[in-house]
Amino acid sequence: MVALEFLFLYLLLGIIRGFMFLSPLKIGDVILPNNLILAPMSGVTNSWFRRLIKLENPGAVGLVVTEFISIEGMTRQNEGSLRMMRFREEEAPISIQVFGNPIERMVLAAQMIEESGANIVDINCGCPVPKVVKKGGGCELMRQPEHLEKILKAVRTAISIPLTLKIRSGWDEENKNALEIATMAEASGVDMLTIHGRTRQALYRGEADWGIVADVAEKLRIPVIGSGDVVDAASAKRYLERGVAGVMIGRGAMSDPWIFSEIVAASSSTHFEVPSETKTIDVLLRYLSLLSADLPEKAVLGRMKQFATQVTRRVPGSTPARRAICTCKTTEEMISTLEEWREFLNGKSETRYRPPQTSAASGERFPQQAANLSSHRWRTNNA
Ligand SMILES: Cc1cc2nc3c(=O)[nH]c(=O)nc-3n(C[C@H](O)[C@H](O)[C@H](O)COP(=O)(O)O)c2cc1C
After folding, report:
1. What's the predicted TM-score (pTM) here?
2. Per-residue confidence band for 19, with pLDDT thresholds at 50, 70 and 90
3. Which residues pair with 122 in a beta bridge?
4. Which of 35, 164, 187, 369 gives 192 a disulfide partner, CB atoms 3.0 to 4.6 angstroms apart?
């Protein structure tokens, strides 16, 4: 009888697993709890942002990656670069991403990363920025496959933690060499490869080409991660169903900081409560508190405004609030601005966050539009 119950439970678990589209991910000897990765984003995925995303998505983020760090700066002990390398224990598993060109410096930087206790070394071959590319780093490495091969082999023998690579689909439409680079990287001992399905020329325009990513994923034995345009559970599922081993989420995490939990809930068919509008204020205050613990006020305000610009867009009609947040001169002013906005969202105050209906709604200048405008439409149109 007990054996039968056990068998039933086993079968049930198997069926449930069959519907799940997420799974643990093995990169070398590092095992991630799931295959959702917070993408490296320069100027965004600093330690505070990484911690914020992990705090907002308990247990749902498989891996975080730092913003890219110059190997020149790192290996010359540049204070800024060394600061960017720092991470907290609670961020693990963590991958540190570097960019640059000279082999010896890449090896040194990788060794520094291993010594820092980070779990993975990631080499950037996707950055399109002229400043980086002109010096042979970022996407330029995709145009120097022989040199890149030497880098990868040298780094591989110099470190024992996993080595990963992040590339684009190619330099431009005529030079989409992701498969060639990926095949060479696998043969050189790379443990995982991420592809952003856009060319260097495309920058961030148009839609990411998931076809080329899926094609490379099918041909390689190492895990291939897809990056580009994952913005919700449906897009993550669609991408994973095309055979990638995992997905990276970049901009989607800025505009929806709970995206990881949402995807995990969808994968396990559990209910996900869409965070209320006022949760936007909670997440902003949490970020402010994390930043304020370590940074001077000016730096806190800069990072807050950057995040606020993205995350407030989820709240329809948030333009006036966004403007108010972005003109704050002190953190104190920012906190009271956010609390004032909360009062408005809760319907408890008539503040400057009210849509500017005075001219339109009163019908003075635009009587026709005013007649058509419900408060809801105003909010949606101006989001
Ligand atoms: C502001 C910003 C900064 C980025 N910085 C990096 C970076 O430092 N290293 C990197 O490999 N990719 C970087 N990327 C690319 C992202 O990691 C990702 O591949 C790309 O944004 C597509 O994914 P998404 O649609 O989920 O944002 C950056 C993207 C953005 C928007």
Report:
1. 0.89
2. confident
3. 97, 164
4. 164
